[in-house]
Amino acid sequence: MLARKRKIVLQAAQHGATKHVEVEAWNGIYAIEEHRRSQGKTHWRANYTRRAIANRNGDIVSTVDDTVSRAAPTDGFQEMIDAGLEEFLWERLVLRFPEQFSSRAIEQARLRLNE
Q1: How far is CA 5 from the centre of its chain?
Q2: Which domain does 88 fall in, by range?
Q3: Which branch of life, at top level (predicted)?
Q4: What is the reported pTM?
């Protein structure tokens, strides 16, 4: 598991993010991609999420905010918890950096994580 987490972090570092919150957001994307590949989906990528980031001129923080603010969790939410990758959840990210996110995102993150 440690090697897998290291790979996730190394991949995310390639994006040239300048803020810690951005780096951790990319970690979340690579975590779900790595998990799904380990489940046999060898070429699976988070294309919808990547397009959403591109549509916001690369603003991953606003993408995280919009995604976490939704009433329903993403498809990968429970999957990442079950895989032991909870630390990479965007909901965790929102709670680690609350000053970067809307009150709605913070509220939804707390509700989903029962905090």
Answers
A1: 13
A2: 2-113
A3: Bacteria
A4: 0.86
